[in-house]
Each structure stands twice: as structure tokens, then as C-alpha cells.
Amino acid sequence: MSIREIPTTPFPDQKPGTAGLRKKVATVAQPHYLENFVEAVFRNVPELRGGTLVVGGDGRHHNDVAVQTIIAMAIAHGVTRIIVGRNGWLSTPAASHLVRHLDADGGFVLTASHNPAGVEGDFGIKFNIRGGGQAPQSLTDAIHRTTLSLDRYRIADLAPLDIGTTGERDVEGCRVAVIDGVSDYADLMTTLFDFDAVRDWLRSGHRMVFDAMHAITGPYARRILIEQLGAPESAVRNATPLPDFNGGHPDPNLIHAGALVDEMMGNGAPDLAAASDGDGDRNMILGPGLFLSPGDSLAMLAAHLDRLPGYRDGLRGVARSMPTSRALDVVAAERGLPCHETPTGWKYFCNLLDAGRLTLCGEESFGTSSSHVREKDGLWAALAWMNVLAVTGRSLPELARAHWAHYGRHYYQRHDYEGLPEATADRITDALRDRVASLPGCEFAGLRVTAADDFAYTDPVDGSRAEHQGLRVVFGDAARIVLRKSGTGTGDATLRLYLERYRRDVIDDAACLDAVAEIAETITGLRAESGRAQPDVVT
Ligand code: G1P
Ligand code: ZN
Fold this sequence. Notes:
Layout: E1 3-7, E2 21-24, H1 25-28, H2 33-44, E3 52-57, H3 63-76, E4 81-89, H4 92-101, E5 106-110, E6 122-129, H5 137-147, E7 152-156, E8 167-171, E9 174-179, H6 183-192, H7 195-203, E10 208-211, H8 217-228, E11 236-237, H9 258-265, E12 272-275, E13 284-287, E14 290-292, H10 294-304, E15 318-321, H11 327-335, E16 339-342, H12 347-354, E17 360-363, E18 367-370, H13 378-392, H14 396-407, E19 409-420, H15 422-435, E20 443-444, E21 447-448, E22 451-454, E23 457-458, E24 465-466, E25 471-475, E26 479-485, E27 493-503, H16 512-524, H17 526-530, E28 537-538
Parallel strand pairs: 3-4, 3-5, 4-9, 10-11, 10-12, 15-16, 15-17
Antiparallel strand pairs: 1-7, 2-6, 5-6, 8-9, 12-13, 13-14, 17-18, 19-27, 19-28, 20-21, 22-25, 23-24, 25-26, 26-27
Bound molecules: 1-O-phosphono-alpha-D-glucopyranose and zinc ion (ZN).
Zinc ion binds near residues 113, 277 and 278.
């Protein structure tokens, strides 16, 4: 075999965002683009020489090509063991688990999450470090710096390997194992949940449906729900991963999983429905006639999780990203649990998880998970909810109403303004940033601002600091408004406006958010300044 050193020139745009590097397929597929980024990772993670690497992705267009490139570059960089999911497929949580379980030195996860796929779609690459967590900011910054001065990369001259069949082979001194990417993950789930109780729940006539949206969770959901838990074939929908996700937008929310939502709002709805996204880390939870908002799902899981086998010792602590609803805080306060508020992005939970300070964490963007992996986990959330329904013997709407009656209810919405010119988005956020310090004490429609700032976070474990993580205007416990710019887009800017209103005694008043939306417009001028009459997506 020959190792080649290929001359290259830097690409100026390889700065990772909220969750890795995301670009259009056409960008990633141009000569040297992926190679440069991968080279920068190898140069900054020297443990990979002589170490173990996990590789897999969500099966989107270009996944197969990228997997072969990474294998050839890994061999050229002296990796001695490579674990690849069959077909190059691994869900994000399954990849995180494999890195942990195999004590690997890192993993490449190829995904642009819920962004559309296909030739015209998006591609993405994340690097997960030893322990399974997403690369921390210090590492992504170092990788980015390296990309800016690269003049060569190393790659082995290899014919593409057969990754469609499981098995191990020796490739130039490197052990390459193609594994069934589902088994280890499915085994992990059996240690966390009471499969017997869930099987009985299904056998006694309860129904659950899971929509894999033609993305990566299909094989995982089939194995666990149908083969292991005995659900009927019809329980898993859109179960075959397709390179273009069937032309869809696999984002499990009220818009993109609209058909499932309609079904759950109609007569004869199943007892539980869930959907996941492109790479399997997001989840949406629905009951008959009920959309359970991610913030409520997180808070309710915090209240029930210790009834499930993997969590019987109790929760060590909980965390939410800053814009996520404060419903979690109320449960944590009553239960005496430490509750952390972190910036948007799963990577900020990882230090707390590694330090044993957290058992459960989540984000408003349909992300929930526990200390079992270092990523959010869509199927885990669906299984957790099936298990909670099975052990409580109550329906999801019953549990939700009981929860709100006890803790009060946090009404919540996220308004996304997409496709904005970068300059417009910056003008709006800059204007609010300039104003926040003057807002405390001001009153809007009867709500008094108690605090307002540009959110900054100091990691309690390693002292690292993240600044400019979203502008927040807090009205005591009663309400909150947050504005931030998305860090996952591949084109124009997206502004996200997060609205929250807490009602202690009223649990059927969705309209109470309207007033908060109007206050937000008064304070941010978002609609006026962007020239938009309304948001593109409300979740
Ligand atoms: C979005 C979500 C964030 C999530 C990320 C990756 O990031 O808001 O919670 O961690 O996707 O799935 P954003 O586009 O807002 O930066
Ligand atoms: Zn995702």
C-alpha cells in the first residue's frame, strides 16, 4: 500500500457550528474539501495514531463516499482499529455509545441531522471524542485553525472496501471491522428499560407508532420495537433509510411530522407516537389528542425516570439548554435535584455528564437524553415514554394534566425566521444586545423585566467560557423571551425567538403566549426589522 501526501490549499469556511461542520453536499464533494477537514481532525487528535476509531453516519447522500475517504485517511494516520457500521450507517446516539463501549479514541459521525439530504441537500461531519461526546469548543477551534493553513493531507491508496457485509479484515496493518450498527445499541436499551413491562403493555392492547421518516432510526426501531418488544410491523413507519430521506425533511416537529400529528389528533389514535430525525438524536412525543412539548417531556421524565430500571438509584442532576422551558427547573426544585442551564448545543452537557453531575438533560429542539450516551437520543426518549406509560398504567394525557396541575404549566413556543440576510439578522441581534442592560425594571403589558442579558456560560467542570449564547429577557418566573441566531444553517441566517409563559393554576390557556409574542415584538422589532409578517416555522 502506498500512503500519499496530497498537496492542498485551505478552505476558509471550515469552522464547525453548533453540531459539527455542515455544508451543502456540493461543497463537501468538491476535491479536497472533506479531506482537509478530516486531516485537521487527525492532526489535533494524536491519540488516534495507534488507536481505535468509529465511523458511521445517517445514510444520506455522500455518506458512503465519505466513509471510504475517512477509512483511507485513518489508515494513513496510523489508526490500528476501525469500527464501521454496516453500509456506513450509525445513528448519532449509537455512534456515541460505540465510542464509549469500545473505549475508542474517537468517532466520525456523518450527518447534517434533520437538514434535507440528497444531491441538492446538506452534508455534515462531527467528531466525537473519547467517551463519546461531541468535540468541545477548544478542539473545534483548534481544528478550525489547522484548516486555515493546511498544505497537504495524508491518505492511503486503497480500493473502496466492502462495507455492506459484516466481518473483520486486516487492511495494511489496520483491523477494519464492519459491524451491525444496531446490536450494541439495542443491548444498551435492555439495561435501561423494563422490556417485560413494555411487552405486557403492548400485549394488553396498547398501541405505539414510531415514524423513522426514511432516515437512520428505521433499522433501530424495527429491531427494538418489532423484534424485541413484539410490536406489530405497522408500528414502525418509513423504516427504510434512503439517501435523500425520500425527499422529506426529517425533523420531528409539528410541521415536518404533520401527518403523524394529524393522526394523533384524530379519533382512534394510538396510545403513544414518536418520531425521530435524520441521524436519530431528536424525538417528538405525542399522545392521543396531545402534543407533548419537548420542555414538558423533559420535565415529566425528570419526575418519572427513577421508576425505570436504569435509573432506580435516582437522578444525580438535570440540565437544559438556556432557551429550553423552565418546566424542568420546577421539578428539580421540588425534588432537590441540581439543575444546570447551559448554552444551546449538546456538547455543553458533556462535561457535566462525564463529571457524574447529570443523569437527564434536554433541549427545546426536540432533544432529550440521559447519561447512557453523550448525545441526545430519539429512540431512547420513545422507549422511556413507553416504559413510563407501562409502569404507571396511565395515559400520556392523564400524566400531563396531573403534572401541570401539580407543578403549573410552562406554555412555550419557538418562532423561527429563516432565510434572512446575515446583515439583517445581525442588525436585529446587535440592536437588542445594545438594549438589554437598560431593560430590567421596565414593564410591558403588566409584566416587569427582572433580568436581561447576553447569556454567557462558565463550565463548572473545566472553567471554559462561552459568550454570546443568546439574548434573554426574563420576567421573573412568569415569562421569558430569548432571541438567538442559529448555528447550524448552511445558507442564510435564521433567527430563533423563544417564548415562555408560566401559569400556576391555569392549564388550558395556550393563548397566554400571544401577549408574550407582542412584548417580544415591542422589545426586538423582529417582524418589523425583518419585513416578515410572521415566522416561517412555529414549534
Ligand atoms: C439547533 C438547535 C439546538 C441543537 C442543534 C443540533 O441549533 O436549536 O438545540 O443542539 O440544532 O441539533 P441552532 O440551529 O439553533 O444553532
Ligand atoms: Zn439530529
